[in-house]
Amino acid sequence: MDDLTQRIRLASGRGKADLLLRNGRVIDVFSCQIERKDVAIWQGLIVGFGDYSARKVIDLEGAFLGPGLIDGHVHVESSLVTLPHFARSVVVRGTTTVVIDPHEIANVLGKDGIRLMAESAAGLPLNVFL
Questions:
Q1: Which helix H or strand E contains 100, and what residues bound it?
Q2: Exposed end of the chain (fewer CB within 10 Å): N or C?
Q3: Domain ranges of the chain
Q4: How confident is the model at residue 105, as a pLDDT?
């Protein structure tokens, strides 16, 4: 069964998700509402909100769930910290992805500077696009 078919199957309540986040307060950034909902996840993707079964259940006890923020253009070097330190600062504030413009390090080190930025992004809890 392909992934799309499996996601549709799980979204319609047929089968078990990998994870159910129970009793979360989901932040809807479009309606500006916060609603108590359960969230079903399969292979790292949300497949539904509501009453689902799952292999593992975590009770969030009312913790908030919100979308990750994307910073579409940032100059990490201007923050005067390394990329790992930058990641530690922004991830805890909800940023999950950054698109970086490494022009400062490229001006100084050329292609080696860009390679250095790419290497320092490996393994971070932050999606980094150069």
A1: strand 95-100
A2: N
A3: 3-65, 69-129
A4: 93
Burial of 33 (0-12, 13-18, 19+ CB in 10 A): exposed
Radius of gyration of the chain (CA): 19
Name the residue with tokens 């990329």: 83
CA neighbor of 52 nearest in space, from 19, 3, 5, 28: 19
Instruction: Give me the architecture of the 3-65 domain, per CATH.
Output: Roll (2.30)
The Cα–Cα gap between 84 and 81 comes to 8
Residue type at position 17? A
What is the pLDDT of the chain when averaged over all its residues?
Answer: 95
What per-residue confidence (pLDDT) applies to 63? 97
Helix/strand number for the chain, H first, E second: 4, 8
Q: Is 108 exposed, middle or buried (0-12, 13-18, 19+ CB in 10 A)?
A: exposed
What share of the chain in percent tops pLDDT 90? 97
What is the pLDDT confidence band of residue 29, given thresholds at 50, 70 and 90? confident
